[in-house]
From TrEMBL:
Entry keyword set: Signal
SUPFAM superfamilies associated with the record: DR1885-like metal-binding protein
Native source species: Zwartia hollandica
Pfam families, alphabetized: PCuAC (PF04314)
Keyword Kinase: no
InterPro entries: LpqE-like, Lxx211020-like, PCuAC_sf
Keyword Kinase: no
Name of the protein described by the UniProt record: Copper chaperone PCu(A)C
Length: 162
């Protein structure tokens, strides 16, 4: 009986180790730099999430959806220019090329949080599950920045100083 118990315990240990290794491998190569959203203005029901996704793997992947609690729905969007007017459009996925990555930033691709149940408050975190075709689900915490946060202005100011 003792021998049977030891064998079962060993098999369970091997199985759990294999599952953990498989999960780490499925997300291998993806890194997420500076995930953030802006704090909500009074009465604002929508928000947008931004992140730099790096794909250090050997296969191109594709972000196909995102989910989080306390919102009506989450969509992937881009901004297109139609006759000089910037318009937001839903996309079915965002390619994340191998050896490169994808940038979700103001004026381009972003994650749209629609129907907020509560406003985004500066200093808090929005836990988001990103779903990729190959890597599967990856949990990423998006930092809520002040409503005035403008990374493009920060980059321009830094560029002018050099």
């Amino acid at each position: 009986m003792k021998k049977l118990f030891s064998s079962v315990a060993l098999m369970i240990g091997v199985l759990l180790t294999s599952l953990a290794a498989a999960q780490n491998t499925s997300n291998a190569g993806l890194a997420f730099d500076t995930p953030w959203v802006r704090a909500s203005a009074p009465g604002q029901k929508n928000g947008a999430g931004y992140v730099q996704i790096q794909n250090k793997g050997s296969q191109t992947d594709r972000l196909i959806s995102a989910t989080t609690a306390n919102v009506g729905r989450v969509e992937l969007h881009t901004i297109i220019n139609e006759n000089g007017v910037a318009k937001m459009r839903q996309v079915q996925g965002i390619e994340v090329p191998a050896g490169a990555g994808a940038t979700l930033a103001p004026g381009g691709f972003h994650i749209m949080f629609m129907g907020l149940n509560a406003p985004f408050k500066a200093g808090e975190i929005v836990p988001v599950t990103l779903r990729f075709e190959k890597a599967g689900e990856v949990n990423v915490n998006f930092e809520i920045k002040p409503a005035t946060h403008n990374p493009a202005a920060i980059e321009q100011n830094t560029a002018h100083k050099h």
